[in-house]
């Protein structure tokens, strides 16, 4: 009985305890809900709802451990939750709004592993027409090309061109063929990436002449844009040579002549036709082109058929790189004003479209889709000497190639040994016809003076830099071609495109700053299938930098030229004398310059400037007609 009583008492007692416990938990639960509501109100910035799950609450409150029959009933909990939710409800957002705020539940593990994105080139870049680099076994005889116009064949033969180089063999017929299609079929634009000295110039000169010589008109029909004056002069000369007996007229617009004179050379005013252009092919620098677009009355590119951009990668880096924008704007504006009411017929559509055939050339043209995008090419085709398919994983945009005939080396020394090694090439190894690159005009000048003094006039050394005017630069190049000068010391102004036949050696006295400069520098020798040698002189702490530069272009290591110390020691006394004299000579030059400028200043102060009789009138003189 005792036991029964005790049991009953215990049971009641336990039940009471449980009920108390339940109430306590319910209170805690409500308190928790209240607390959460408060914190929620505080963090109303995002108006997000804190949804508290029953199970979570139960777990939190410890009610899960209570036997099932003693748990708080589900409806009771629901009503408590509903009560709390009712107050929160107005702030609840629609599902779509919740998504837009991108509510992120912290602590969840729904992170997905991002799949690796493969570099995929557009089809035309990954499937280039392969161009051979082999200039030793030429198979494409010029006289066997039935498509070639007789006039061009005659000029080629007189120039001693018997075989086409690989790039010419592929590109020339392709361009000509594109212009044999019916008018409405727009030709494929092309990009050509072939080594230095592989004959890219004739690859666009010949097809342009052949296509244009069949048409007659007073319009600019081909525009060739180059980055620097020297290159423009060189390309204009090639055009002029091959335009012999074709009736086509070529004009160079490069800033080498005053703008007004150039305007008179290209435009003519007639009563009936107003402004007409006397020229078919314009070869120009980007900067001068913009000047003509903005200042030359009647200068029109409406009938442009070919747009050639040589050294295309360089021209986009150019300071005048918005020339393309100006040119396209000009063409668009002209089309717009001349066709105010476009007709919806064959002729109307044909006159509306801009079908300028774009041809891009360079030895370092990166197959980089983003860069090439800027040219707005139409269904382009790539001709490349770089085997792109062989390197699907590699960063092909950084790969450049040099001619097979070019032997590249580098020599490592201390800064003091640099001039000794440099002199050693001429004095001991008897190198002739050498181009030497430095990184500044001052350094080019100092080296020229040093070498002339040191060799006591036996070596004919000349400098070629931006410090010289155009006539002096042309004279130096002419003398070098005629072997009256053995060594030209220059800056990178001459690194690109300049074709100096018979240049046997290239020395980089200062290492190049990047891979493109390297490729173009060394490419001044080993041209057109001839053997060439290039040496880069680097001091000890530049070795890694130089290797990195080579690697960035996908070039394998080049051999190192070992120098014997005793040979350099023998040259030391001569060098020490020469450097003293050089210093003296440069000091004298500076002294003379300062004296001259002082005299000029004094003269300008003492003499009041005479005003020309017709000076005022000469301002804003209309162009001679
Ligand atoms: N088919 C050919 N046969 C013989 N010589 C040629 C032929 N084609 C071009 N040449 C000569 O090869 C030299 C190099 O040609 P070109 O200047 O066109 O090279 P390039 O590829 O434009 O070089 P770069 O990239 O340095 O500008 C020139 O002297 C040119 O006269």
From TrEMBL:
Q: Which SUPFAM superfamilies match?
A: P-loop containing nucleoside triphosphate hydrolases
Q: Which CDD domains match?
A: DEADc_DDX51, SF2_C_DEAD
Reactions catalysed, as given in the entry: ATP + H2O = ADP + phosphate + H(+)
Q: Show the ranges annotated as biased composition (Basic residues).
A: 593-614
Database matches in Pfam families? DEAD (PF00270), Helicase_C (PF00271)
**UniProt keyword annotations, A-Z:** ATP-binding, Coiled coil, Helicase, Hydrolase, Nucleotide-binding, RNA-binding
Q: Which domain of life is it from?
A: Eukaryota
Ranges annotated as biased composition (Basic and acidic residues)? 583-592
Q: What is its EC number?
A: 3.6.4.13
Gene Ontology MF terms: ATP binding; hydrolase activity; RNA binding; RNA helicase activity
Q: Which InterPro entries match?
A: DEAD/DEAH_box_helicase_dom (IPR011545), Helicase_ATP-bd (IPR014001), Helicase_C-like (IPR001650), P-loop_NTPase (IPR027417), RNA-helicase_DEAD-box_CS (IPR000629)
Family to which the UniProt record says this protein belongs: Belongs to the DEAD box helicase family.
Q: What is this protein called?
A: ATP-dependent RNA helicase
The protein's organism comes out as Danaus plexippus plexippus
């Amino acid at each position: 009985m005792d036991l029964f009583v005790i049991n009953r008492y215990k049971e009641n007692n336990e039940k009471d305890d449980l009920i108390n416990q339940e109430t306590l938990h319910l209170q805690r639960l409500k308190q928790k809900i209240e607390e959460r509501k408060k914190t929620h109100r505080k963090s109303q910035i995002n108006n997000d709802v804190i949804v508290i799950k029953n199970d979570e609450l139960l777990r939190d409150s410890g009610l899960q451990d209570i036997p099932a029959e003693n748990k708080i009933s589900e409806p009771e909990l629901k009503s408590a939750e509903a009560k709390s939710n009712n107050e929160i409800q107005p702030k609840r957002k629609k599902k779509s709004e919740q998504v837009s705020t991108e509510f992120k539940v912290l602590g969840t593990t729904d992170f997905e592993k991002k799949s690796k994105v493969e570099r995929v080139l557009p089809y035309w870049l990954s499937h280039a027409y392969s161009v051979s680099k082999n200039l030793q076994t030429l198979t494409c005889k010029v006289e066997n090309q039935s498509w070639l116009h007789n006039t061009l064949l005659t000029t080629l033969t007189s120039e001693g061109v018997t075989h086409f180089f690989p790039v010419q063999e592929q590109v020339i017929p392709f361009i000509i063929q594109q212009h044999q299609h019916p008018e409405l079929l727009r030709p494929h634009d092309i990009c050509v990436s072939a080594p230095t000295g592989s004959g890219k110039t004739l690859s666009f000169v010949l097809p342009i002449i052949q296509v244009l010589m069949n048409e007659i008109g007073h319009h600019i029909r081909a525009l060739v844009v180059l980055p620097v004056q020297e290159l423009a002069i060189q390309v204009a000369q090639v055009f002029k040579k091959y335009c012999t007996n074709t009736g086509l007229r070529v004009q160079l617009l490069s800033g080498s002549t005053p703008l007004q004179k150039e305007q008179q050379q290209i435009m003519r005013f007639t009563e009936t036709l107003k402004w007409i252009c006397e020229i078919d092919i314009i070869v120009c620098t980007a900067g001068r082109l913009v000047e003509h677009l903005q200042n030359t009355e009647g200068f029109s590119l409406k009938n442009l058929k070919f747009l050639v951009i040589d050294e295309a990668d360089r021209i986009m880096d150019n300071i005048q790189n918005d020339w393309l924008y100006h040119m396209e704007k000009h063409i668009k504006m002209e089309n717009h004003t001349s066709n105010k009411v476009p007709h919806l017929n064959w002729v109307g559509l044909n006159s509306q479209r801009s079908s300028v055939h774009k041809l891009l050339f360079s030895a370092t043209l990166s197959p980089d889709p983003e860069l090439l995008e800027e040219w707005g090419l139409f269904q382009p085709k790539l001709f490349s000497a770089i085997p792109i398919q062989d390197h699907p994983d590699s960063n092909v945009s950084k790969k450049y190639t040099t001619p097979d005939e070019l032997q590249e080396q580098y020599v490592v020394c201390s800064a003091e040994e640099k001039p000794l090694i440099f002199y050693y090439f001429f004095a001991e190894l008897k190198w002739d016809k050498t181009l030497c690159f430095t990184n500044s005009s001052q350094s080019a000048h100092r080296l020229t003076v040093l070498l002339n003094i040191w060799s006591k006039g036996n070596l004919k050394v000349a400098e070629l830099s931006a410090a010289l005017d155009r006539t002096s630069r042309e004279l130096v190049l002419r003398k070098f071609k005629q072997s009256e000068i053995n060594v030209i010391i220059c800056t990178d102004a001459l690194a690109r495109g300049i074709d100096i036949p018979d240049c046997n050696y290239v020395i980089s006295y200062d290492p190049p700053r990047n891979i493109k400069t390297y490729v173009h520098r060394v490419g001044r020798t080993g041209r057109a299938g001839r053997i060439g040698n290039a040496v880069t002189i680097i001091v000890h702490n530049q070795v890694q930098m130089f290797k990195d530069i080579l690697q960035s272009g996908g070039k394998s290591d080049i051999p190192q030229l070992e120098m014997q110390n005793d040979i350099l020691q023998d040259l030391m006394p001569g060098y020490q004398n020469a450097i003293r004299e050089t210093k003296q000579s440069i000091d004298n030059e500076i002294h003379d310059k300062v004296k001259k400028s002082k005299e000029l200043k004094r003269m300008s102060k003492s003499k009041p400037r005479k005003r020309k009789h017709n000076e005022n009138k000469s301002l804003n003189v209309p162009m001679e007609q």
